[in-house]
């Protein structure tokens, strides 16, 4: 039965993926009406997150951001669908790096980079576009991901995301992949703004006015392996068009104090959110795990330098 469902879904996914963007955008408008007005998908979560992060904004302003977010969210859904068949030419046109020389500067010096991207605008297409920063000898793009429970869908999604040479691997295999590619220049990519499952193995800081636990792994690996951490500003310039600007977080990561890289990453994200708040993943329950009272006593010692 699982395999039959998989075959049906695969057929529908690929049938939808070959549609032109103008038709996918029309589908996005239908999805917006259904998700926002009919099903009220996570509207309470979105509104709560926006209010707590922008207490200075009026109800009307919060409502406007909320609507713009859902329109963008539906665009992301159809863009993710398009990912299954989108061409290299189309990715280069629609997901453009404005300053690839920032990465190339460190590539030429022999460094590996830790690419720290938030769930902001279209982060999924980075799986493809990072492969074209320095052609024809682009560093390997290593991307950790969460394994899907359905083995058939897992195979389908992994195959799709690997089409332009990105190397996908489960988070649990990070150490092994770093060793495997230690002699090959590479980018190691993190979605570093997510809420960590282990509150004791987190970095705690104030973010958007909230006490927030932050994923610390990107900083830990950057310092241990001397990877240059890079923040990606992803800006939406039109429907399904994005520009990416790279910003160096630390040129000498091993010389930074504990928490500097993580704090800097989150401050850059905070700046992007104040400039264009509608494009973050507001449906995520970002603050559902509070900082435990005994954090300082029980935090996993491996999180510290």
Radius of gyration: 20 Å
Low-confidence stretches: none
Structural class based on helices, strands and sheet pairing: alpha/beta
The tally of structural domains comes to 1
What sort of overall outline do the alpha carbons produce when their principal axes are compared? globular
Q: What portion of the residues fall into strands of 2 or more residues?
A: 15-25%
**Mean of the pLDDT scores?**
93
Order of helices and strands, N to C? HHHHHEHEHEHEHEEEHEEHH
User: What level of helicity do the residues show?
Assistant: 40-55%
Q: Give me the count of strands.
A: 9
**Number of continuous helical runs:** 12
Q: Give the neighbour order of strands across the main sheet.
A: 1-9-8-2-5-3-4
For the report, how would you describe the main beta sheet?
7 strands, mixed
What is the rounded distance between the termini?
49 Å
């Amino acid at each position: 039965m699982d395999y039959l469902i998989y075959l049906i879904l695969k057929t529908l996914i690929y049938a939808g993926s070959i549609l032109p963007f103008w038709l996918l955008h029309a589908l996005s408008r239908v999805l917006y009406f259904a998700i926002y007005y009919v099903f009220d998908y996570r509207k309470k979560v979105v509104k709560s997150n926006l209010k707590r992060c922008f207490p200075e904004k009026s109800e009307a302003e919060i409502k406007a951001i909320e609507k713009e977010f859902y329109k963008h969210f539906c665009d992301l859904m159809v863009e993710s669908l398009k990912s299954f068949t989108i061409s290299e030419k189309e990715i280069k046109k629609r997901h453009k790096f404005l300053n690839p020389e920032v990465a190339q500067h460190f590539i030429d010096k022999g460094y590996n980079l830790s690419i720290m991207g938030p769930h902001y605008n279209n982060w999924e297409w980075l799986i493809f576009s990072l492969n074209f920063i320095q052609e024809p000898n682009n560093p390997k793009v290593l991307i950790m991901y969460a394994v899907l429970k359905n083995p058939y869908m897992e195979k389908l999604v992994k195959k799709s995301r690997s089409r332009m040479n990105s190397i996908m691997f489960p988070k649990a295999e990070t150490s092994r992949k770093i060793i495997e590619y230690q002699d090959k220049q590479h980018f190691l990519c993190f979605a570093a703004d997510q809420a960590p499952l282990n509150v004791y193995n987190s970095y705690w800081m104030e973010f958007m006015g909230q006490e927030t636990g932050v994923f610390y792994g990107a900083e830990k690996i950057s310092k241990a392996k001397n990877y240059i951490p890079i923040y990606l500003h992803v800006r939406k310039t039109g429907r399904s068009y994005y520009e990416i600007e790279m910003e160096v977080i630390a040129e000498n990561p091993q010389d930074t104090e504990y928490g500097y890289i993580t704090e800097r990453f989150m401050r850059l994200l905070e700046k992007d959110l104040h400039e264009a708040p509608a494009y973050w993943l507001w449906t995520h329950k970002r603050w559902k795990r509070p900082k435990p009272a005994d954090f300082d006593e029980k935090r996993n010692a491996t999180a510290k330098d």
